[in-house]
Specification:
Radius of gyration of chain B: 13 Å
Number of helices of chain A: 0
Structural class of chain A: mainly beta
Oligomer: heterodimer
Helix content of chain A: under 10%
Distance between the termini of chain B: 41 Å
Number of strands of chain B: 11
Shape of chain A: globular
Structural class of chain B: mainly beta
Chain lengths: 115, 110
């Protein structure tokens, strides 16, 4: 296991198209997070799962965004009707609570460009 | 709502000089504070967390609740310290959501 992986690494799409990103967490990590990072900013929390349950969603996550983790393993993030403002790096992280603490391990990210 | 402020977007320091990256936070409860680092062409990774009270790669950070600060320090900078540094918090122990600052790009001048 080489860590959190994300696919694709880069995505260029036209405004109005739908896109889907995939995240594979570290094996046996029961928590999975999605963040978005725009230029010059730190990552911003979007949503997180514990196993297959989506436990929290940011108000940043509009109705056009949906995330799933159907079997408690990999997760997908879909953006419908993309807008230019959706252009960003989408980061996935996973963690497993041990000893009351929780270290999030990040993937390399998917860079989305909406033309 | 919680907030993390990193006042310096860019910081340049000569090799061998001391480094201090500033981080201030606002949160009414007892947050857990972190420093994450991103080296060139690498993924974001945890550098240290305040509850561990560890020194990682020569870096330390002390949580000052009175000043609501969590500054990152290193007495002697090395060239390999050049990277992007993010301060982050979770609202309480075991809470999952990380709130990040905007980051400081540290450049070590040889």
């Amino acid at each position: 296991d080489t860590g959190v992986s994300q696919d694709p690494r880069h995505k260029i799409t036209k405004r109005g198209q739908n896109v889907t990103f995939r995240c594979d967490p570290i094996s046996e990590h029961n928590r999975l997070y999605w963040y978005r990072q725009t230029l010059g900013q730190g990552p911003e929390f979007l949503t997180y799962f514990q196993n297959e349950a989506q436990l929290e969603k940011s108000r940043l996550l509009s109705d056009r965004f949906s995330a799933e983790r159907p079997k408690g393993s990999f997760s997908t993030l879909e953006i419908q009707r993309t807008e230019q403002g959706d252009s960003a790096m989408y980061l996935c992280a996973s963690s497993s609570r041990q000893g009351g603490t929780d270290t999030q391990y990040f993937g390399p990210g998917t860079r989305l460009t909406v033309l | 709502a919680q907030r993390v402020t990193q006042p310096e977007k860019l910081l340049s320091v000569f090799k061998g000089a001391p480094v201090e990256l500033k981080c201030n936070y606002s949160y009414s409860g007892s947050p857990e504070l972190f420093w994450y680092v991103q080296y060139s062409r690498q993924r974001l990774q945890l550098l240290l967390r305040h509850i561990s009270r560890e020194s990682i790669k020569g870096f330390t950070a002390d949580l000052n609740k009175g000043e609501t600060s969590f500054h990152l320090k290193k007495p002697f900078a090395q060239e390999e310290d050049s990277a992007m540094y993010y301060c982050a918090l979770t609202p309480n122990f075991g809470n999952e959501k990380l709130t990040f600052g905007t980051g400081t790009r540290l450049t070590i001048i040889p």
